């Protein structure tokens, strides 16, 4: 199992540019709407401080890589077609991409902060990026509402069993969103509603769809194109607007990340993704050097290009996932060390981790050890981000 981060947003905001910068793919980018039609999936990385230095060791990663104590752990990233108002009714490219989004565990909403593209992704001026945030949330809510309504019909038809509770039918209809009947029941009760759809009016159903969406598709806002003065002007008014206080914003320049990674590949500069600094190592033509100095101003001011920051905030904060290293108290004979680092759901216990590694390991679970403290931990102990855990199993 590997987490999937989905990039969403209206056309022309820079989703594909972000995707290419994060995965070093080469999907088409363009200043016209619907450059992307079919979704692309690629491998991106999230940074985790490596545990190896604490053991005075160097790690030998099986997946991803480690550089100067920072582990780059692979995660899946999905770039989908742009979403326009009315998408849930089939506008734009229809609702195919909503289905593509189904598989994403957490969303990064890429917003063009320059205000220079309208809701359809066409060039304009002085567009308020807040409208994009509102429309995307509404669109996702409508999509959820459609599915919720189907679940209610299913319940009313009694077709799947007379004695079924409403939350059972809703959970089955919404199974793609990875929410179970009990969780749905909690949401219904939390909204002060009865467990009877006949008592719900339009507003109640909308509130329910919205709440389920918020719980099952955590979302972060990537304020993109922040390398431009227009976007920077929008930053403060929007991020400090009380109406948007509940959201997390990360300032991003997908362009800057791409330029730095390309420069690194071409050997003209040293850049580690996510860092706030880089070193130019070659003699560059004046224009190119000046461009890089502009990027330097940007990454210094904003603490990086924002691409890594957005992915990590989405996964570790919005979704609340944790990274865990399988480890051993005794050194491995073959000289390998901390070969893996896995991303697990929030609240995972030592036993969950054992099952995650392999069903057999889970079934034979005896106990676990926190490799740092060498203390034994029980099956129900909840793990923390960056724990190093040894599992003892009969299998
Ligand atoms: N200034 C600036 N422009 C950017 C940035 N990222 C993307 N762009 C530009 O925005 C335009 C749209 O980029 P795409 O990556 O194709 O956008 P998209 O969201 O994938 O668009 P669709 O596939 O049509 O939905 C292109 O002209 C990019 O060069 C950025 O960080 N800064
Ligand atoms: Mg695209």
Short descriptors:
single chain, 395 residues, alpha/beta, Rossmann fold, Helicase, Ruva Protein, domain 3, Ubiquitin-like (UB roll), 3 domains, seven-stranded mixed sheet, five-stranded mixed sheet, flat, binds guanosine-5'-triphosphate, binds magnesium ion
Please explain how this structure is put together:
With 395 residues, this protein is an alpha/beta fold. The chain has twelve helices and 14 strands. Helices cover 36% and strands 18% of the residues. Helix 1 runs parallel beside helix 8, helix 3 packs across helix 6 (202-216) and helix 4 (166-173) crosses helix 5 (181-190). The longest helix is centred in the middle third of the chain and has 29 residues, at 129-157. It is flat. The two termini are 21 Å apart. Guanosine-5'-triphosphate binds at residues 9, 11-17, 29-31, 33-36, 81-82, 121, 224-225, 227-228, 253-255.
The largest pleated sheet is described as: 7 strands, mixed
CATH topology call of the largest domain: Rossmann fold
Question: Whole-number average pLDDT?
Answer: 93
Estimate the strand proportion. 15-25%
* Class computed from helices, strands and strand pairing: alpha/beta
Backbone CA Rg: 23 Å
Shape: flat
Question: How many structural domains in the coordinates?
Answer: 3
Q: N- to C-terminal separation?
A: 21 Å
Helix content: 25-40%
Task: Give the low-confidence spans.
Answer: none
Q: CATH superfamily of the largest domain, please?
A: P-loop containing nucleotide triphosphate hydrolases
Bound molecules: guanosine-5'-triphosphate, magnesium ion
Quaternary state of this entry equals single chain
Pfam families: MMR_HSR1, TGS, YGR210-like_G4
Domain OBG-type G: 3-272
Protein name: Translation-associated GTPase
InterPro entries: Beta-grasp_dom_sf, G_OBG, GTP-bd, P-loop_NTPase, TGS, TGS-like, YGR210-like_G4
